[in-house]
Fold this sequence. Notes:
By secondary structure, this protein is an alpha/beta fold. It is 40% helix and 15% strand. The structure holds farnesyl diphosphate (FPP).
Amino acid sequence: MAPVDRGSDSSSKPPLTKVPRHVAIIMDGNGRWAAARGLPRATGHRAGTENLREVLRAAVEFGVPVLTVYAFSTENWERPKHEVNALLTILEQVIENELDELDASGVQIRHLGRTEGLAPRLVRKIQSATERTAHNSTLCLNVAFNYGGRAEIVDAIRRIIGDGLPPEAIDESTISRYLATHDLPDPDLIIRTGGDMRVSNFLLWQGAYAEFYSTPTFWPDFSRDEFYAALQAFQQRKRRFGRVESQS
Length: 248
Ligand code: FPP
């Protein structure tokens, strides 16, 4: 992939020579960003949504072909009802207000996660957004919403059993094929904002060999430049995939 030209502010920064094929982001810190400003948590989520636009643009600019964002986990249902409602409303509004622009920019939208528990109207909107953008190819955006890595693996195993596969026919590639990401590369890089160093049930199968990048920056402040810094850090990593360096 050609090095990315970052324009006039890139002079002191080396070009990106090794861009991850798939970057996944745990967008953490919206609540603390809001609390630091004396604002409600939902305002933090809205600021985080605004920031996602910037990061999407940056992903296209830097040549990242697949981006997965963790927007709502299966555990997030335990949050106060008004916060859950705010996150559900944000997803609906993002689809309503941003779909034309995302589609025009060539973004293919996919949903990772369960639809059970989501309102039928929201499910229809998700389905229509994914169908409408299915042929776009500038960037594949996976929105993990009502998503849990364990639940995803359980669902895959249920379908494998439902399809009648005998135990001896099941290997790692079978599980991968039954995940919603079956036709996508595994994430090369998982970024977590907000300072914690946990995987939090995110892409447990696909992230087996992902490089992890954690930053204390709260998600609404995670800028294009910091995204670039994460990609630079990635290209310094020596990935061995369980082998020794001379083999990798
Ligand atoms: C974690 O921060 C963030 C979330 C649970 C929600 C992330 C959602 C968005 C950024 C909105 C984008 C939405 C869509 C639908 C694309 P936190 O609330 O746990 O923050 P804290 O750790 O500071 O409390």
